[in-house]
Amino acid sequence: MKTVIVEDEPLIARDLRKMLQVVAPDAEVLATLGSLAAAKAWFASHPEPDLVLMDIQLSDGVSFDLFSQVPLSCPIIFTTAYNEYAIRAFKVNSIDYLLKPVDSEDLQAALDKFRKLRLPTTDFGQQLAALIRDLRPAEPPKPLFKERFMAHFKNTLMPVPAEKVGYFVKNELIYLVTSDHQKLVTDYDAMDEIEQQVNPVHFFRANRQYIIRLESVAHFKTHYNGKLIVKLQSPLNVEVEVSREKASEFRKWLSG
């Protein structure tokens, strides 16, 4: 069973792969794609797999936008953290869904349903087209921002609510530092990836190394060369530079 995973959260993608190995040993994961752009490129240049596990809300758009550019006829199991209207549509169109966090038993049940539906008379392309008609809103969806971030704590993973984040910092690895000064390792590879997922009302990309949260800012001062020196609240007590080019943008962000 050739499978592709489309999921922008590295930890969830990794967990899906592990669960697949357990509940479906015959599954071969051909690719794990972390964005809408990566999915478009992959499906445009590769044969369709037997099955796709796909998140609805990706960091660079809604996965339904993929189907208007790359027609897919293979069955898809969607993963979603969002609401009931989607669940009703999935049921009507006989394409399964998994609510996050994904449970291995739910994944097993979805795969069982996939195998039962995997008949020559099953037109998944037609079902998918009906699903998109049911789900696509009249207006473009508003961007959805992450409400929590997964990070390593000792030998475990823990979710950190966005409001508990003090700042993100890159120093070889990318760390999440909580407002009470816990420094936790994330699985992100690039600060750009985080910047796309945080709410810009609350977070600001100060420089290549730092993304800071509004509520963490204590005060700032202007350096002689036009840069800003931002001091974060105790117990963080970090000074972060904002370049002269971004100084005006920072002041506007801070003032709301």
Question: How does this model look, in words?
Answer:
With 256 residues, the chain is an alpha/beta fold. It folds into two domains: 134 residues, Rossmann fold, CATH 3.40.50; 92 residues, OB fold (Dihydrolipoamide Acetyltransferase, E2P), CATH 2.40.50.1020. 32% of the residues lie in helices and 30% in strands. The chain has eight helices and 17 strands. The protein has a five-stranded parallel sheet with strand order 2-1-3-6-7, sandwiched between helices. Strands 12-11-10-14-13 form a five-stranded antiparallel sheet, with helices on one face. A three-stranded antiparallel sheet has the order 15-16-17. 28% of the residues are buried. The mean pLDDT is 84.
Give descriptors for this structure:
single chain, 256 residues, alpha/beta, Rossmann fold, OB fold (Dihydrolipoamide Acetyltransferase, E2P), 2 domains, five-stranded parallel beta sheet, five-stranded antiparallel beta sheet, 32% helix
Spatial order of the strands forming the largest sheet: 2-1-3-6-7
CATH topology of the largest domain: Rossmann fold
Q: Provide the helix percentage.
A: 25-40%
- Report the end-to-end length measured between terminal Cα atoms: 51 Å
Approximately how much beta-strand content do the residues carry? 25-35%
* Radius of gyration based on Cα positions: 21 Å
- Per CATH, the architecture of the largest domain is 3-Layer(aba) Sandwich
Query: What does the average pLDDT come to?
Result: 84
Number of strands: 17
Number of discrete helical segments: 8
- The CATH class of the largest domain, by name, is Alpha Beta
